[in-house]
Protein: Anoctamin transmembrane domain-containing protein
Amino acid sequence: MSALLEAKAFSKVGEVRSVKVGTRVRAGAAGAEGGSGGGTVGRWRRWRWVGGGEEGSGSWWRYVLTALYLVAIQYYTRIGGKVSVILIKYENNQGEQSSADSLIYKVFGLYFMQSYIGLFYHASLYRDILTLRKVLIQRLVVSQVLENLIENSIPYLKYSYKKYSAVQPIEECKKPLSFCSKKRERESPSGKSVRLSTRVEKEYLKPSYTASIGEELEDGLFDDFLELALQFGMIMMFACAFPLIFCFAALNNATEIRADALKLLVMLKRPVPRAAATIGAWLNIFQFLIVMAICTNCLLLVCLYDEEGKWRIEPGLAAILIMEHALLLVKFGFSHFVPEEPAWVRANRVRYVAQAQTVCSQQLLRSISKLDRKWE
Structure:
């Protein structure tokens, strides 16, 4: 519901800007006549302030509202993710991998609806490409800035609080022994005060690399994959409206690499590496987003082409439909004919397996020969 309200507000801004000249004329005529014209002038001034108008006073206000909306939606959707974690426990899944895939699909479905419902509202109903472009910029810029701040600030605040809570009892215990502690500090060869916690203790106080929807999920890559999937869907499904959005995403990803390195190396406990053959259910999600991107971009072209809404099968519309089917055919063709692993990877794998078997057989022969010598 909040996404629909936001979409209506942005679409209203686009409508007012498109009829700005006519509204001014009607407002002036109504002001000259008096009486019922005051309401039109008041509405025009109010919508012009929200949209920025000529003064541009509402431009920063739109970013503030977008930030508040994204923060609220993030926490509300996180609650839905925690509910999904609880529901997974009551499902009859075949194993841990099946449970993890089911959880990924449920949580991504929630985030998909909350993240893209306003954008689809602009693209399909209002067909305002300029407002859709502004919403895309605001969503991408504000959401990425907020996510970077939240990802890096919350672990640091948790670590600072745990460190302060752990150091306070030590300080209280050392108060009666102030003379001994001062003597120890004077006798230290470096001349510096003795630190209250070692590196191991600091590592213990750092928060774990876990998912935001549940502390029991020790794999913190869940949030990173979810963030990448949502960003990928935004820049792919609405590339026709604003092609330069890829530049913003590339700049954000370059910053995100350093931010994640700081988070993993300094602010969080070192995660335990685990071997994995594929990315699992996330591969199916990315393939789904590719198909959705083809359909939504063709839909945007149709909406731009058919401005009157008559939906006649004309040569331009037929060309767009043919292009959509051709792109889908190319996508599924590449998925079917291109192998999942290159030929050189398969050859190296076979060679390594053969070498391992040779080494094992040689060791077995040596052990058998040693046993024969002992019995002799």
User: Anything to note?
Assistant: The two ends are 86 Å apart (CA to CA). The chain is about 75% helix and 0% strand. Residues 344-376 form one domain. Residues 129-174 form the longest helix (46 residues).
